[in-house]
Each structure stands twice: as structure tokens, then as C-alpha cells.
Design goal:
Number of domains: 2
Order of helices and strands: EHEEEEE
Strand content: 25-35%
Structural class: mainly beta
Number of strands: 6
Largest sheet: 2 strands, antiparallel
Amino acid sequence: MAPLAKLNDGMFDFLIVEKTTRLKLLMLFPKIFSGKHLNSPYLRYVQTNRIKIETQYPEIVNIDGEIKGNTSLEIIVHKQKLKVIC
């Protein structure tokens, strides 16, 4: 879903879905395999090394299956601080 993502670029890759119908989203699924879904007006692709998530009311934060607290949450990528073995 994030065709520009790289393990070693120090960036988060986010695909933000704008408000739309389920039917329009379903029609995008076949395009995911070619990367053409990024051209959709219903999607925004964002690369950043920092993100802050705030909600109107506190929400539980679940990261990779583990509860990590509540929102507000700020996550920062520190480039070359994590070794990834492939």
C-alpha cells in the first residue's frame, strides 16, 4: 500500500484515506498492486520522520498489537538507530 516506503530512509509512510464511500474504496483495491491507487483523490500519501496524533477524546494507542498508552502521541524516527535484519 506504501510503494515508496524504504526500510532505511528514516521516514514513516502514511496513506491517509479521505472521507468517501465504501464502494469507491473497493474500486481502488485492484490498483494497489500497481501503485496507481496513489493517484486517487480520496488518498493522500505522506512521508515524514515525525507525526503527532491528537484526538478530541483520549483513545487507546495500539502499536503492533501492544497497548502503548493514550492519545495525544508523538512518534519520531531516529535515522539509523535500529538495525533491521532481512
